[in-house]
Amino acid sequence: MKKTFAFSAIAFTAIAGMVFGAFPRGTQAATVYTTAQVATHNTASDCWLIISGSVYNVTSFIPIHPGGNAIVAYCGQDATSVFLSIHDQTAMNMLPTYLIGTVGTPAPTITAPVITNATATTSTVTISWSASTGATAPVTYTVLRNGNSIGSTTNTSNAFTDTGLSPGTTYTYIVKATDSSTPTPATATSSAKSVTTLTVTPTPTPTPTPTPTPTPTPTSTPTSTSAGIAIVSPAASTTVARWTMIRATTTAGSGITKVQLLIDGNLKATLTHAPYRFYWYTGWTASGTHTIQVKGLNASGTVIASASETVTVSNVRQHRESDDGPNEHEGSGFDD
Predict the structure, then answer these.
(1) How many other CB atoms are there within 10 angstroms of residue 79's CB atom?
(2) Which of 141, 151, 237, 289 has the largest count of CB atoms under 10 Å?
(3) What is the per-residue pLDDT for 182?
């Protein structure tokens, strides 16, 4: 037997008109339900109907339905045909009271990304976030700073670096995920995350290090070995005894004004004019090898030294005071 609503259009209209003010207003939201979802609401205590592609919750109407529980037979089903066959326009005008949505395929949903980390320098901020789940790959993540889009990425690292920022400034970031669902992509937006860039620490001006006053270098008499002065006699490697003349010569232009004689490095005599002749009495000098050298000093104090020569002293007899000495006008005489 065919199921029908057991009441006339006139009766439904009259009853609906009397109780309209007492019925809860329906939710005319754009909620989309599948037929499978509607089918789960199929009892007198939870009754949904599909009429002309819209979903109605008529649970509260069943106790006052003129046809009694006959409506329960259509709970969870599409009742379009039977409803339209016995109701007029007045009854249909009452349907919005129970409207809760439409039948169709719900738009895909994904979880919102969560900003998990944020680091800052004086001019950059790097944020990272958890990936959205339930999404159709690839997912595009758009980063917004202070409400304005500054870039997007599809990389799996889920990170983004914002550059060119001002030091010591707070910025607010949001990440919006958009998947590749068709025809309508699913979107979800993270909560806002505020990050403050680091301030610039001024570089302290270094304290200048005082320049130490240099310690004056003691002035020493400059010395050079030059051909400007030389020993003429005795010749190197000569054997000498008793009174020995040591004769030095200077070259023109040397500027030498004083000549000194050194025996074994010790100053023995000084002459201030030419000829530079020194008389060395070797009687008091130990026999053996000795060095002789002359040094000249010019007006500026520069010392010009001759090459050293080695002579051999041979004292073949003891010193006698009657030994003839040098002529006092010829040079400087000394003994050792």
Answers:
(1) 21
(2) 141
(3) 78
Q: Which tokens go with 258?
A: 């004083």
Residues forming beta bridges with residue 142, ordered by sequence position: 152, 176
**114-161 residue pLDDT tens:** 999 999 999 999 999 999 988 788 899 999 999 999 999 987 889 999
Locate 43 and state its tokens: 């009892």
Task: Name beta bridge partners: 335.
Answer: 281
Q: Exposure pattern of 190-202 as b/e (b: 16+ CB <10 Å)?
A: beebebebeeeee
Q: Which pair of tokens denotes residue 141?
A: 């993540």
CB atoms within 10 A of CB 41: 19
The length of the chain is 336
CA distance 234 to 151: 101
* Angle 163-165-171 from CA coordinates, rounded to 5°: 105
Contact by Cβ (8 Å): 79, 50: yes
Round to the nearest angstrom and report the end-to-end CA distance of the chain.
Answer: 163
SS3 280: strand
Residue-wise pLDDT tens digits, 211-260 = 888 877 655 444 444 568 999 999 999 999 888 999 999 887 778 889 99
With vertex at residue 188, the alpha carbon angle to CA 182 and CA 193, rounded to the nearest 5 degrees, is 155
Say what the alpha-carbon torsion angle 254, 257, 261, 265 is, to the nearest 10 degrees.
-70
